[in-house]
Write a structure and sequence with these properties.
This is DUF8123 domain-containing protein. The chain is mostly helical and 69 residues long. The chain has one domain. 71% of the residues lie in helices and 0% in strands. The chain contains 2 helices and no strands. The longest helix has 27 residues. The two termini are 26 Å apart.
């Protein structure tokens, strides 16, 4: 079985798994409920927004690189 990797760009090979990894880290952060350890509401909101932002950024990176030529 021959696998032709010459047609793949290095950015595609690295960016898609990186985007998926960043999204999974954001989901793991949300699953760990870090806001339960904060006494400040502002800090808890910041942690939630950061985790959701990581998910959005990771999925956007993977989608953008995967769908562009």
């Amino acid at each position: 079985m021959n696998l032709d990797l010459d047609s793949l760009d290095t950015l595609d090979v690295l960016a898609v798994p990186t985007g998926i990894f960043v999204a999974l880290v954001g989901l793991a952060t949300l699953a760990g409920t870090p806001w339960t350890y904060e006494t400040s509401t502002v800090a808890a909101i910041g942690q939630i927004l950061g985790a959701v932002g990581a998910v959005v950024l990771g999925l956007a990176l993977a989608w953008f690189v995967f769908t562009t030529e």
